[in-house]
Amino acid sequence: MEARRREPEGLKATIRWLHRAFTDMRFEFHEVLVARDRAVARITLHARQHGPFVVHDSPDGRVTDAFPSNGRTFAAPQTHWFRIAGGAIAEHDAVRDDLGMAKQLGWIPPTPIYIFACSSPVDCNVATTPKHALANRYRPSRCWDRFFLEQL
């Protein structure tokens, strides 16, 4: 996946990936500390979801989840850790409140229909839409992912 690459091209791909899902993005910096070759920034990301948030969480970069847009806004705290070498960022790690963001965007808690359908067997070859997932009593987690991906 493009966004997992290193160097400036990976950063540019990550920015494009975020912009496909979010608009009105703004990073509010609360605190930045620098010591020798290390830096840390405590920030809050403010944005509004305008497109599906697609997760590529597999080694081969394929899509593993997709969360549909509902137009909601969110403010999620983050802490970013950097190692500087040769005047550039050599390493970066982040701690983000993804759970808080998901709650604000309405991705969780799941609806009662989703919970009911999750208690059923999995067979995404039969159930490819939320309506069929409930009607056929198939677990929708992967089925709903397929449904949302079909909308992309």
Task: Provide structural commentary.
The chain has helices at 7-21, 98-104, 112-118, 130-135, 140-150, and strands at residues 22-35, 38-49, 53-55, 65-67, 73-85, 88-96. It is an alpha+beta fold. The chain folds into two domains: 2-103, Nuclear Transport Factor 2, Chain: A, CATH 3.10.450.50; 110-152, no CATH class. It is globular, with a radius of gyration of 18 Å.
End-to-end separation in angstroms reads 17 Å
Order of helices and strands: HEEEEEEHHHH
| CATH topology call of the largest domain | Nuclear Transport Factor 2, Chain: A
Number of domains: 2
Shape annotation: globular
The CATH class of the largest domain is Alpha Beta
Number of strands: 6
Task: Briefly note the structural class of the backbone.
Answer: alpha+beta
Nearest-integer average pLDDT: 78
Spell out the key features of this protein:
about 150 residues, alpha+beta, Nuclear Transport Factor 2, Chain: A, 2 domains, two-stranded antiparallel ribbon, 5 helices, 6 strands, about 30% helix, about 35% strand, disordered C terminus
Strand and helix map with partners:
Elements: H1 7-21, E1 22-35, E2 38-49, E3 53-55, E4 65-67, E5 73-85, E6 88-96, H2 98-104, H3 112-118, H4 130-135, H5 140-150
Antiparallel strand pairs: 1-2, 2-5, 3-4, 5-6
Task: Report a brief summary of the structure.
This protein is α+β, with helices and mostly antiparallel strands and 152 residues long. 30% of the residues lie in helices and 36% in strands. It folds into two domains: 2-103, Roll (Nuclear Transport Factor 2, Chain: A), CATH 3.10.450; 110-152, no CATH class.
